[in-house]
Fold:
Amino acid sequence: MLDADHTTESTRATAPAAADAQWELPPGDVVPVFPYLVFLEFLAALLVSVVLLAWALGVNAPLLPEANPGYTENPAKAPWYFVGLQELLVYFDPWIAGVTIPTVIILGLMAIPYLDTSRDAVGRYTFSARRLAIGHFLFGFALWWLLIAVGQFLRGPNWQFFWPWQTWKAANGVESGLWSFPWWIGLPALVGYFAGGWLFARRRWPWLYAGLGRGRYAIVMLLVLTMYAVPLKVLLRLVLGVKYVLETPWLNV
Amino acid sequence: MASLPTDRPAAAAGVAATARVARVGAAITSSQLYRSIFRHNWTDSARNRALEVTSNAFLHLHPITIPRHAIRVCYTFCLGGLTFFLFLVETVTGVLLMFYYRPVPDFAYVDMKTLEHAVQFGMVLRNLHRWGAHLMVILVMLHMLRVFLTGSYRPPREFNWVVGVSLLVLTLLLSFTGYLLPWDQLAFWAVTVGTNMAAATPFVGAEGPFHSLVGVTARDDVRYLLLGDVQVGGNALLRFYVLHCVAFPLAAAFLMLVHFWRVRKDGGISRPL
Structure:
């Protein structure tokens, strides 16, 4: 009989106070969604509409000459949100930069709530209560945007590095003299990095291991150490000219 | 000031006009048609505030009440809602763009040129769609950051975080498939770069590690599946078009349904406990 009730109610100018009392807000620090939240959402949508319209009126979307498979654009850049992965192609083989890293990022993100199962510090911004989690996450987030910025703004023809004030025509030194670790250094280095990181963190933050248990701790360490391995490999390449940490007949890392 | 003697006839006419408007308004709001659409009146009462949400198909996504701290802009920055809003903007502008575009190499680029130069507001329409997509990608990433920083993925919201990550991936895929459609050099080579990565997939990519174990070649690997060919061409354009306009939007809408419903079912908007 809800509908019938509504229609009879709608003919009245004002609802009697007694009938209205049962609809009063429950005790507690709450506000009615209408109008408080609905109007806020409306204003936010309005603001974004204005910004987007101004953007669309002021800046035209690019349109280059028609697609021509016979003429390769140089540089040929992926859409900006994938340029960070393309930037990693300098430092990793495509199966790592283009497939493995994005897959690990996606699965790693999905795994977060199953690894960090604490129910504390929910619903507020806090750094002090979650120093480690927020620190690592922000590092990864910043790395993602940094790689995009480098790939998008600092890479020219043949994916060579150019500062914004350099013209792309300037001859740029070609990277040469790259070398790789022999396998008997590379393999122990890789194993040592993950095992060492695993042990170091266990010693440095013993409560983490205790809280997570062995399985979750192992997955967390694998994900976090993989993330830090990316900038580490970049540094190895830039500072020491290391092409591969591990070379095998089947794949190179 | 309205009580000056000379204003009296005008004031009386004004009162009469107001009364007429009120009568017409009352006639409308008491008609069967109006009452079949709006089940309650607009008097500001606690009951009506509840009905305005629960009796509205679009607003009933919301609870009737919400913690006071949740409407602080600096808590959510409206990022999730705005991402959804941009999805709607993309849907509307996208449908309009479809009237002017044919996903065939012979026509695609010409249609873009026609859209920009011969269609009234065609350029603005295209700009809205493209910049809206960029903004959506940025906002969805910031939304994820907000949810992480406020610990809102923690139990019992684990599954909704997973749905959210899937929506992030879908947003990127939507944007990437749309990137090819203008069929210009930018689109062609960006998608060539992107899909070449697929060929490097271990086991199932023709250039990836261990591909010879599985025996895949360039003609039956995962890139071929994406492109319908060994390189970007007419088949890829059609596939990306269908994915962009039909498959991915449907998948995103389906996941959004789950995402929003689960926000409510998993305890509403996150709040300090």
